[in-house]
Specification:
The protein is of the alpha/beta class. It is built from 15 helices and 13 strands. It has a single domain (3-234, 281-404), classed as Alkaline Phosphatase, subunit A (3-Layer(aba) Sandwich), CATH 3.40.720.
Length: 508
């Protein structure tokens, strides 16, 4: 459809109505939802990295709507995934920290859509409870993780093993862990044809072939580039060619959250997969391996997308690609996620929508995963305005004029924290416990201000336009009281609107 014809159609039908895909049995759009774990946006060319080899994701971006700056609801696995699948904030669906099961009365996308004509599948990492069991409206289930049995609900068989476990056993491998499972690092050291991405690729392509004549919803969730920082493509990039993060040497002064300083100190004494992070060379090697994992996933994504094309399904299938959070990768001297810095809270977000044309469209501005479910439902011809706290972004996509809006992010206290994990001698136990049990609420304004308010640790204010790498916390300078008051009011109003009762204020 040419742009003029599309706009004419849009003008005579309400945005979000079924003008994109008339809901008749033969015309229902398919949905292929591909996501990774712990992938930063700057691992793709469209977000500024032309050095990393990700040709398939880069091609997808060239045919997709690309959200310039996309953010998670909370920068850690379970809470973020809960938002992506339910359209609710973590405190609304109950998944406020890792390894909490999603309540059975909270519906996920297939249950929300409630269309029996769709064939559905969920393949890969779940991390929302009862990892190995088909659930939440997904008929077919292929699991890859065997480390969550202790979090199964009562009555679940804890001796059960993942689909990937059985795949390896059938190929002659012997479990390496005392409990009779295959460890993540063990799996990452296998030949590429037996690693998790290839397993998911095979299962996804098989699903597409079998379901080609029916409307389908297929989620494929890769573990990589999540740790271990190791994989069959470790040698793809030379460590000496890796550049350290621009804020790698940020000292994190006393006005930064204690919790973050503890995390930095822990990272700098770590030796993941034998890499010494006390040294620059250790960080470079880790980054090279991380890039290798991104390339590894890209190859399997490419095979899945090629199968979609070969089966003649591409023009009837919406493709979504995103991740559940970012990765610090040495930024501020830190590793992993669970902080409010940009490297941890930003993710890639691509959507190829055949009805809107397979072409690259960069939607400038800041956007949130809280809007993902409303947008996907709208694109599938099932708008549900008012049901979710987020909004459909279809109007911005359709007209190319994003509505300026705040982005909000949560951090909810980690109540299962083990003190010895981050113990630092010069701090009293009570001090550490208070810091790591902090709740934080963050707002990023359209004009580039970022305010992070804590209920038990230091607050932060950054001007992302002047300080994109967040090296200077200006909350305590006394020079930006008006900005702080304005953004504090925005956070409190947002909290009221979503019934978030965490008490954060200007001072604390």
């Amino acid at each position: 459809m040419r742009r003029r014809e599309f706009l004419k159609s849009a003008a005579i039908a309400p945005v979000g109505a079924n003008f994109l895909f008339p809901v008749r049995r033969s015309d229902r759009p398919n949905l292929l939802f591909v996501w990774t774990d712990q992938q930063r946006p700057d691992t793709l060319a469209v977000y500024g990295n032309s050095r990393i080899q990700a040709p398939n994701l880069n091609k997808l971006a060239s045919e997709s709507i690309v959200f310039e700056r996309a953010y998670v609801s909370q920068p850690v696995c379970t809470p973020s995934r809960s938002t992506v699948l339910t359209g609710l904030w973590p405190h609304q669906n109950g998944c406020t920290e890792n390894n909490l099961p999603l309540a059975e009365n909270i519906p996920c996308l297939p249950e929300i859509l409630a269309d029996p004509e769709y064939r559905t599948g969920y393949f890969g990492k779940w991390h929302l409870g009862d990892e190995l069991f088909a659930q939440r409206g997904f008929e077919e289930w292929e699991s890859i993780e065997d480390i969550y049995q202790q979090y199964f609900r009562p009555g679940r068989d804890r001796s059960r093993r993942s689909s990937y476990h059985h795949f390896l056993v059938e190929r002659g491998y012997k479990p390496n862990e005392p409990d009779g499972t295959f460890g993540r690092l063990y799996a990452a050291k296998l030949p590429i044809e037996h690693c998790k991405p290839k397993f998911l690729e095979m299962k996804a392509c098989d699903f597409l072939r079998r379901r080609r004549s029916e409307p389908f919803i297929l989620h494929v969730n890769f573990l990589e580039p999540h740790p271990p920082y190791y994989g069959p493509l470790n040698g793809e990039y030379r460590a000496e060619d890796m550049e350290l993060e621009p804020n790698y040497t940020d000292p994190l002064e006393e006005d930064e959250p204690l919790n973050y300083r503890l995390k930095r100190d822990r990272a700098r004494t770590a030796r993941p997969e034998g890499m010494d992070l006390r040294t620059d060379d250790g960080w470079r090697r880790l980054k090279a391996n991380y890039w290798g994992s991104v390339t590894h996933v890209d190859r399997s994504v490419g095979a899945i997308l090629k199968t979609l094309e070969d089966l003649g399904l591409a023009d009837r299938t919406i493709v979504v690609f995103t991740s559940d959070h970012g990765e610090m990768l040495g930024a501020h001297g830190m590793l992993a996620k669970s902080v409010m810095y940009e490297e941890a809270v930003r993710i890639p977000w691509l959507m190829r929508v055949p009805a809107l044309g397979r072409r690259h469209r960069l939607i400038r501005g800041r956007f949130s995963h809280i809007d993902l479910i409303p947008t996907v439902l709208d694109l599938m011809g099932r708008p549900m305005p008012g049901r979710f706290p987020g909004r459909s972004l279809l109007p911005e996509i359709s007209w190319g004029s994003p509505k300026p809006a705040n982005v909000f992010i949560q951090w909810n206290a980690t109540l299962k924290y083990v003190e010895g994990d981050l113990l630092k001698p010069e701090f009293q136990s009570e001090t550490i416990q208070r810091a790591v049990r902090t709740n934080t609420r963050t707002v990023i304004s359209p004009d580039g201000w970022k305010l992070c308010l804590s209920d038990a640790d230091k607050n932060q204010l950054f001007d992302l336009n002047r300080d994109p790498y967040e090296t200077k916390n200006i909350f305590y300078t006394g020079q930006h009281r008006d900005v702080i008051r304005r953004l504090t009011s925005e956070i409190h109003e947002w909290q009221r609107s979503i019934k978030d009762r965490v008490a954060v204020a200007e001072a604390g």
